[in-house]
Amino acid sequence: MIWASTALEGHSTQGRDNTDWTHAKTGQRPAPLRVLGIMSGTSLDGVDCAMCDVSADAIKLLKLWRAEFPRVLQSRLKSASCGEVNSWELAQLHHDLGRFYSAATKCHASARRAQLIGLHGQTVFHHPHRTRPATLQLGEPTYLAEALRVPVVSNFRVADLAAGGQGAPLATLFHQVVFAKRGQHVCVNNLGGISNVTSLDWRRGAQPRVLAFDTGPANMLLDLAMRHFTHGRQTCDRDGRRAAKGKVCEPLIQRWLRHPFFRKTPPKSTGRELFGESFLLPALAEMKRVRLAQPDCLATLSAFTAHSIALNYKRHLPTPPSLVVLTGGGAYNPVLRKAIASALRTAHPSIQVQTSADLGWPPEAIEAAAFALLAWRRWYGLAGNLPRTTGARRAVLCGQICL
Question: Which of 390, 357, 4 is nearest to 198 (CA)?
Fold first, then answer.
């Protein structure tokens, strides 16, 4: 079991740090609930399910399991995320995915003990445009609510988007709850398909100063490259084994680092639209022109991800962190971990780099548990976004409840 304090600032809550946890409407303290968080990220590799005890004072991980996407469903999701399906196919996929989520959870005995579910859904489009923002997460929640006969909170991002925010990042509150350390500046860097960082600077003050934003690609380019090289037979470079045999092409990395997203100031978010196939295919062509072998390509893409993270830290964080905690599937890739540590320490040799597993939280549990926390907050009428990190005009209730 894993637990962490949930005392937070300025969100109608009261825990250890004098936060007012009284419910805004009823005047009562929210009750503890057993919440199932379900997350499938932009890497399109499967679903992580985290059963958590969530209360005003703590969040505890009770059970963690994973369900892989069947090959056909994964292919359909990839096509949807690339804009290659029509409205009929998209509607059918929305319902088929909802049934998959239901099947992936109801077969587990622990899922049947859930009192509430937080379902992120599968993002197939995310475009936080200044005047015409849009985001879409597939997976009809009604099937899950019917199968387990408990409320399901889903569609978390759109409320923040409607309030002028990016709709991301939303795991920030969870990062603050679990990883903020008084007297330290900690960065939590999630390595899913996309990389995002939460900066928690608690060297002074009653609460940490929080900044969060997407930094660019993480596993997405590596996974897409592996699918390309193996004609779909392999979906990732397991443990970075192929990349470990390659040599990095520094000139290409320096060229790619001129991408305008890295200069953009937070709040900012991104996705497959910028760092998916539209980035990879020209990059593969460039690597082919300079005659890079497949391991060299993977090593170069790994180093590019690492350098883009370091560049974002340098440009957009007021001060460098003392500790970086890596989470998400990419935290299991030793080549990527080493590249990130090297890139960060080039400018600041004293930076420590760990994984969330070193601190007691499995990397694959973080995002799912974060949406368990957000579901609990939505159920009790507590805001789920941090406007200073998403850019929203105000704190809003994140998620819609399906009973």
Answer: 390
Give the closest residue to 212 by CA, choosing from 99, 105, 56, 327. Answer: 327
Q: What whole-number distance in Å separates Cα of residue 88 and Cα of residue 83?
A: 13
* Token code pair at residue 335: 């080549």
SS3 of 152-212: the string is EEECCCHHHHHCCCCCCCCCHHHHHHHHCCCCCEEEEEEECCEEEEEEEECCCCCCCEEEE
Round to whole Å and give the CA distance between 33 and 12: 18
Read off the pLDDT band of 1 (50, 70, 90).
very low
pTM: 0.90
- Mean residue pLDDT across the chain: 92
- Domains belonging to the chain, first-starting first, are 2-165+362-402 (3.30.420.40), 172-359 (3.30.420.40)
Give SS3 for 284: helix
DSSP string, 92-146: HHHHHHHHHHHHHHHTSGGGGG-SEEEEEEEEEEEE--SSS-EEEEE--THHHHH
Strands 116-127 and 33-40: parallel
Residue pLDDT, tens place only, 326-363: 999 999 999 999 999 999 999 899 999 999 999 999 99
Distances 383 to 39, 89, 94, 156, 400 between C-alpha atoms, Å: 20, 34, 27, 11, 12
Count of CB atoms situated within 10 Å of the CB of 32: 15
Cα gap 209→202, rounded to integer Å = 6
Strand partners, 135: 126
Contact indicator for 271, 83 with CB cutoff of 8 Å: no
Residue type, 48: D
Place of tokens 């001129």: 258
Greatest pairwise CA separation for the chain in angstroms: 67
Structure tokens of 249? 């092409």
| Helix 366-379 / helix 172-179 crossing angle, nearest 10 deg | 110
CA angle 81, 87, 88 (to 5 degrees): 115
Q: How far apart are CA 116 and CA 403, in angstroms?
A: 10
Query: Quick check: 183 and 203 in contact, CB under 8 A?
Result: yes
Query: What count of other Cβ atoms lies within 10 Å of the Cβ of residue 11?
Result: 17
